[in-house]
Amino acid sequence: MLDKLTFLFYIKNMKNKILILAASSLLLVGCSGLKNNLGKMGNALSAGDYKVTVWSGGKPVAEYFIKNSFVNTEQETDGYFFFVNEKLVRVSGTVTIEQQ
User: Fold this and answer.
1) Which of 14, 40, 48, 80 has an alpha carbon 20 to 30 Å from 86's alpha carbon atom?
2) Res. 4: pLDDT tops 90
3) How far apart, in Å, are the Cα atoms of 22 and each of 16, 31, 44, 67?
4) Contact 64, 81 (CB under 8 A)
5) Segment 78-87, tens digit of pLDDT
């Protein structure tokens, strides 16, 4: 009888350990995604200096330097918009945005 109780206690502890391990794994994976999302939100809320490069065929075809401003995403497209010298610029396609 004692062996059966010990075995049941062991199984219950193993289930708890597995649940804790699974929950910890999910938190770790979720944390990196959360960190990325918070980083994006922080950049979206604060103006900064950016270099925007538009690419075609693996070569840069246009470069923009934005000072103390925002680079915004276009709704429902792969594009971005920003202001350079008080003029609206819209770009789409293969674009890299580097925070300076």
Assistant:
1) 40
2) no
3) 10, 14, 33, 45
4) no
5) 889 999 988 9
